[in-house]
Design a protein that fits this description.
The protein is built from 23 helices and 13 strands. The chain is an alpha/beta fold. Strands 1, 4, 5, 6, 7 and 13 form a 6-stranded mixed β-sheet that branches. The structure holds ligand BLG.
């Protein structure tokens, strides 16, 4: 061994020893942020409490961001702990605190102003900022049309940032920012004519369109932007690269698309007119029957919103509805079902709802014990529409195909076969319009989802806007001259 080699070896040993000593004494914690999360077994995520991100529903915590973050935590094998911030400034400042949450998942846009505070992940959703106005007023079509309007946006939002940029070209442009409101409040204020315009992201508008009948898209404001998750800018890159890998997988295996459809796809499924009509009926018709739904649901231990969703699918909440086949009333009871449920007058909305609740419950109770919730409820819905006997046929077809007769996803594939001769001639009860039943269950579930979030406390809290939320600069100005009369 040369003297040089011996010297190097001694140095290496020395350095190693120092390294071991340092790490033993805890002077250097070399674990990455990802390792720390895994060691502690908890991922702390900060979000906003809003229908488009995170809220409480019939079965607990839910929302697009919550569901995605929950899957991420499950993948990491750790518990998810959600924290909420009241506004975006607070969210970013808590994210950068030394003992703050590790991740922010709140429909965030990787805007220039925020790049200094946070590192953003790859995008998981493309959205367009949209200018929103009230139906009946002149539709703004370009940035110049924003001049002289009462505009309110979320404080600290990318929309405020975009408006500030526009102000450089249009110095007379005025707008307000508020941290006392959420997106629903902004839309509510446009809907009620309390402000002229607001800016929201397309996904948030899509979700809320089914609630506010008067709000309309004026025009897309600038380019589409990408929603991302964020980690504090002080963090190492371990968590961020794990997030990116997860988002990539969620894109590839369809998880993102499913969540997007479930939360933001109402307008796509109902169509623009359908969403608008639903919103109108929600305000004008549902209040007349809500107490009947609630009472009947309580008696039968159901969620009243499921019963209401069925009523909307059956008759658009119209007590005198009649089908071509003579089925009648708000809940579309056949004569036989009405009789069996003790309904004397099918056209009486209260009786119709009580009878339907009783019938639905009876069907649900009669299903095989192997069928678990929530599928159990979807099976009961199918039986409500097609009859328990035909549903039994579809389950048998599923079994014969090697599918699971206790899973809705499998049985729903078989139902359309009940109207095809090659299949229904093999069944015990024969022909039935099973395709319609699939459609029926799908629609009821869609309305149920919508009703679930429009009746959640967060949205009901948005009534603060109605009761005179105080935004001084806005209050001072006169309502615009061309405001449309109330519909
Ligand atoms: C349902 C009955 C089931 C009955 C099935 O028909 O009506 N449900 C109710 O009365 C609530 O009881 O099952 S059976 O008794 O075991 O035979 C099958 O007959 C009602 C359905 C029929 C459907 N809507 C509730 O979903 C309907 O109105 N179809 C007609 C559509 S159209 O006007 O011809 O387009």
């Amino acid at each position: 061994m040369s003297a040089y080699t011996a010297f190097r070896k001694r140095c290496t040993v020395g350095l190693l020893a120092i390294g071991i000593l340092l790490s033993l004494s805890g002077c250097v914690d070399e674990s990455t942020s990802l390792e720390r999360i895994q060691k502690e077994g908890v991922l702390r995520v900060i979000t906003r409490n809003s229908p488009a991100t995170y809220f409480q529903d019939r079965s607990g915590e839910t929302g697009f961001e919550y569901e995605l973050a929950k899957r991420f935590a499950d993948d990491l094998g750790v518990e998810l702990q959600i924290e909420t911030a009241d506004n975006l400034d607070e969210l970013y400042s808590r994210l950068s605190q030394p003992n703050g949450p590790e991740l922010a998942a709140a429909g965030l846009t990787a805007s220039e102003e925020r790049q200094a505070q946070a590192r953003f992940s790859a995008s998981y959703l493309e959205v367009s900022p949209q200018v929103v106005y009230r139906n009946g007023q002149r539709r703004p079509t370009r940035p110049d049309d924003l001049l002289g309007k009462r505009i309110l946006v979320l404080k600290g939002s990318s929309h405020a940032e975009q408006l500030r940029k526009l102000q450089r070209q249009l110095p007379r442009l005025e707008f307000e920012e508020s941290d006392a409101v959420e997106v629903v409040d902004l839309l509510h204020m446009v809907d009620e004519g309390q402000i002229d315009l607001t800016l929201v992201d397309s996904n948030e508008l899509a979700m809320n369109q089914v609630y506010f009948p008067n709000v309309r898209v004026a025009f897309d404001f600038g380019d589409a932007s990408s929603l991302s998750w964020a980690v504090s800018s002080g963090e190492d890159l371990s968590l961020l690269s794990e997030v990116n890998a997860f988002l990539q997988r969620a894109k590839q295996n369809g998880t993102l698309q499913r969540l997007k459809d479930r939360y933001y796809g109402h307008v796509d499924v109902l169509g623009y007119v359908g969403a608008y009509t639903f919103a109108k009926h929600l305000q004008q018709r549902l209040p007349r029957y809500e107490k009947h739904f609630r009472n009947a649901a309580q008696t039968d231990q159901l969620d009243w919103r499921l019963l209401a969703a069925m009523g909307y699918q059956e008759s658009l909440w119209q007590p005198e509805a009649t089908s071509k086949t003579g089925v009648r009333g708000l809940m579309m009871l056949t004569q036989n079902t009405a009789k069996a449920m003790g309904v004397a007058n099918r056209l009486d909305p209260k009786q119709s709802i009580v009878g339907a609740g009783k019938y639905f419950n009876m069907l649900r109770d009669s299903l095989a014990a192997e069928i678990k919730e929530p599928d159990r409820s979807w099976f009961a819905l199918a039986a409500y529409n097609i009859g328990i006997a035909h549903l039994g046929d579809a389950r048998k077809l599923a079994e014969a195909e090697g599918l699971d007769q206790n899973k809705w996803l499998d049985v729903k594939k078989m139902l359309p076969r009940l109207s095809q001769k090659q299949w229904y001639r093999k069944t015990r009860y024969g022909y039935a319009r099973g395709g319609e039943t699939v459609h029926f269950v799908q629609n009821v579930r869609r309305y149920y989802d919508i009703l679930t979030w429009v009746t959640q406390p967060q949205l009901e809290g948005s009534k603060i806007a109605e009761s005179g939320l105080h935004i001084p600069a806005i209050d001072k100005r006169k309502p615009s001259e061309d405001a449309a009369p109330q519909l």
